[in-house]
Protein 1
Amino acid sequence: MVVVLGKRKIGFFNETVQHMSGPDRSARLVELVGPARLDEVFQAKVRQRRWAVGLVTLGIAVIGVWLMCDMLNLGGWSPLKVVELSLFVLLFTALAFGFTQAFIGFLVLAEGHEPLKITNTLDPAAPLASTAIAMPIFNEDATTVFGNIRTLYDSLQQRGELENFDFYLLSDSVEPNKVVEEELAWADLCRQTNGFGKIHYRRRRLPVNRKSGNIADFCRRWGHRHRYMIVLDADSIMTGEAVSSLVRLMEVNPRTGIIQTMPKLAKAQTLFGRIQQFASRLYSPVFAAGLNFWQQGAGNYWGHNAIIRVSPFLTSCGLPELPGREPLGGRVLSHDFVEAALMRDAGWEVWFAYDLEGSYEGLPPNLTEYVKRDRRWCQGNLQHMWFLLAEKIRPVSRLHLIQGILAYGSSPLLALFILFGTFQAAIDRWHQKTLNVQLPSALILMFLTLLLLFSPKLLSLIHLSSQSKSLRPYGSGLRAAVGVVLEIVFSILIAPIMVWFHTRFVFRNLGGQTVTWHTQTREGGEAPGWAATLSEYWPLPVSGICLGLFAWWISPGYFLWLLPILLGLWLAVPLALLSGRSGLLTSFFRTPEETEPVKELTTSYVFQLREGDQFVHAILDPFYNAVHVALQKERRNHAPAAEGYVASLAAKLFRQGPEALTAREKRALLADGPTVARLHVLIWKTPAQLMNPIWSKALESYRSPERVSRPASELMEQSHSPVDPAVA
Amino acid sequence: MAISAEYLTLLRVGINASPEWKEAWDRINDYLDALKVPEDVERQLALLSSFEQAIARKRQEPFTPATQLAFEETQRALDQTLGHLIGPEVPRDRRSVEERIRLFLTEPSDRSSSKSQVQLSDEVLEALREVRLKPTPRLQQASITARPFRFSPTGEKVITFAERVAFLGSNRILSWCLGLGIIGLLIFASL
């Protein structure tokens, strides 16, 4: 770690280095104090920071717990109250930690200069090194994926830095249509950019171990070709500048194994997407600055928009097989946190480049899709419980893992806390005891909780307002403020819905149910309809009504206390429906990525992809067919059984049409290049009466629009018109 | 080869008069549309030439469908036009695929197969002969070894305890009964 010191004073040598900044001065600093001493000072500083965060969190938690004890003390203790208090301690401490982080982040941003951050070491003159841009994909929309790669390719080309980068599209797609589409999109992308030999496409026949297996497979095949790899998600967009900066940061920080960027949400169109985008854009900076403040070189990896040093990744980050079976055991589903922990265990630093611009990602377009994604993430994070019991995991890595687990695990704890509180209130009502709490303590605790929950949002708004230039892309200060208020209302309403689903997911996983791996719907996907929403959300309003009636029976005051939760439950269905709507509240929730987007976010590319069944195109379209056949490996072993099977599939396809084959059969057929090439010729040269009408109809779809629109009489006339003798 | 306009007109009339040849004509036109060959006089001439050959073959092979003959003759014409873009080492059954790839790569500036011969420079022609659609680079294999999972001493104790009580969670009904029982007990004890 190269420490860069600015105007902040650190320790004994503050006078000497008071105005130092930039890599050259850092080198001078190392000369002055010696690397060992510098590292010692740095470690002492980090320890100080962690103690500070820990003590502030503890202080807030103690106040909260004391108030809670005071509140519950009236009327004596009961087993229910003890359990309630235990749950409160855990939940309130987590809340206090989040607040502390945001508050410190706010102070860091307000102060204006953080001396201990990785981006301080960025040297624009540092040389680049061989880097792979790796994008694992699974049944994604080819136009989006290949368009995002093209964006980065062009961006790097314009900077004249393309030669150091190779692009790898690592497909695990299994849907025949998607596979065919990807192949043509790749060939077209390479053709458009002249990127053959630079943009690579690899598809695994068997998607073993999902995304982490995909990346591991890449490392095994081409790990030695590159010093670094930048992992992107299918919806990740990065600018050439950001990517080059990451490589340069790695070059000047030789002890760093991973640098994670802070991807900003972009390209949202729906109400839900825009609210999330706005919230993330506005609130993330304070949380991110606070996170970097205490974690420093012991950061985390989020699985994408990050750079990884390949060599230590190969030697140290092989994922272990967990004890037991899925969902909680077996193969690691959510690999990123674990890889960061393993990298740290091997002695490498993991940094968070939270202020590096030019890193973006998409998000699910509506509440339902968001919840679906959470279901996968929930199982992945719960698996991390094993690593809390494992050896050689550093304390800060354990803390990251705990945070990840609590992201979902806190929901059932909160649900139990509310449930036990309600039972206790019901018991009090049963014993004719009214308002069995210390009112002043209750009010102070409520105020404190609200403060911890919402003040980070307020602090973010204050930070934004302090910079008039930053405020402009949000519309105006007023619009940003109204946006924050609306976002708070929205987040209050969806909180019970998220608690409901997270609780369900946690219990399902604990009960042994595992998730299937499906493709995430990116922005622009179809919003769910009434029927689908009702079938998914109906238990929420029903339980909301039951809880409301029960709370009213306890006392109207208790009903009012629970009203924010009840409202969320009652309105779950309309909220889910509204979340997927576009064009609502467009005056609010504006972000710089929406109003002043960088070029990389606005450019869109077109690939020569045909509409319709891509599998049929692989058979009939001369270009699709040629590209697909050329990409298939030559079959070396001519096993009669395999050849017979493929021939039977080809015959079935020819006789009965594409619908007759299952996805698996289609994959088997597509894997045999020569058979696909023969089918292409066979269908094109067979007269209509000798084959299934589906094929003759499909062949007609290739007719050019001019020939389709031309009337039959004109066609005949043209057929009879004499050819220019000169041309002849 | 110079063909008289009258002969071509007659040929077209003949093709349109026979349903079998009319279907073949439409099919081959659809194929050329799929190949994005521009619909111009050159295409018409090339087509008629292919059909002339096909009609001649039909006299020798009366039971072979016209569509098949026309497709084969058109393919032969394409082979002749695009053959120079492919190296001689490419096997016969693979040549059509390779030709189409080269057509795809030279799109959109050189859609016309007949024009490609004229417009492509020697360098491009040479490059096209060398083209192999290779999606991945040469392997430079590395190994990534999974680290075995080992419990810490505390973890060992926790897991030993968990294994002892694991039977409680092995059955879903039992787990639910147990969970609800604990809550019930808590409520009962708090009454």
Protein 2
Amino acid sequence: MDENNIETPNQDQNINEPEPLQSPIGKDIKNIDLIIQKITNPNFKNKLLKLAAFLVILIFTVFIAAFAFRMIRTNNLESTSSPLPTASTQPEIKNPSPYYNDEEILEIEDRIQKIEKELDIVNFREETLRIPSLDWKINF
Amino acid sequence: MKRFLGILLLFIPFFFSVPVTFSQEEFDYQKAYKDYIYTFELYKKAHSDYLLAKSQYNQAKTLASQTKARDVTAIMLEKRDEVVITYFTTLRMLLSESDGITDAEKQGLFIRIDSEVAWFKNHKSQIPSAGTLADLSEDSLEAAEHFVLTKPLIYEVLLVIPVGKIEIFKTEASSILDDIKNKTEKVRQKGDHDTTKIERWIIETQNKLTRSIDKEVAAQANIASIQSGNVKDKDLDKVYNETISLLQESNQFLREASQFMKEIVKEFKEA
């Protein structure tokens, strides 16, 4: 009974001694081996190459787009800007006639618009030039 | 030393340019109006001094208060004449810058305005020679009576200017309608667009223009009656307001005519 309970130094050694492959270094080595195996795998190699090519093309495209956008904004800002839309009171013409874009008609239309504006804002009373109010009755 | 001369050379054109800038400043309506407003402010101050001096003199009746009242009243009367002079000058400038008035009409009004300016300048120069308060009262009455005579001229100018505006609008609207008529005739001859409705609308537009002209003619008749002295002093303001109303009605008919012409253009553009 005593003999069975006494643990021999050899038994202790066997239990506490770590296995070489279970250590972190050992795990890393195992992972590296797996990685090397994967890398050397021809299928994985192809996939990686495709991904790299895609990334290069993407970066190149983004760079070109950014450059072009900057060029447009700095150099050609005026030429690329479109006129601001203005509210038009002109009635919509659904069925245009051959005179829709006629030069003479457009000129007449332009003149009407001008005179219309002037007729709207004209003021006939010269309020600032009313007869001055002066004291004409001077006596003592 | 060289640096000093360099700086001096830099400033030389500036010194020469300053008087040139001042001499080139044009005397226009805006400048005349500013002068008038400034002169009017000076008059108001002088008038206030006059009222105070008059009150003090009426209370004290001393020689000192009498002398003070005389001096202050003389200044006030001079300022009053200056207000009239600058007011007429402003009217003249406005008239000269206004369009739609014939040169002959402008020249006739300029001569009359200049005559009034000369009268008040002469009157102003005589004020310092007034020895007593009674003399100043006499001078004041003389100017007051003359101002009543000049009032029709003021109203006339104030009405001729807006008539000129209507005249310009009427001429332009008639010219546009003439172009529309010519275009309609061309289109009718070509036969690629029905002009029946357009021709009817042209007649409607012409009627609006005619009614506008009628109102303008009535306004001109009012001006003529002011000019001929048929309007009494107390009625001048009333006739002025009536004439302005006639011009506003004339303007309204022109607006309606332009609206009709817009519709004609739309009819041209629509198949």
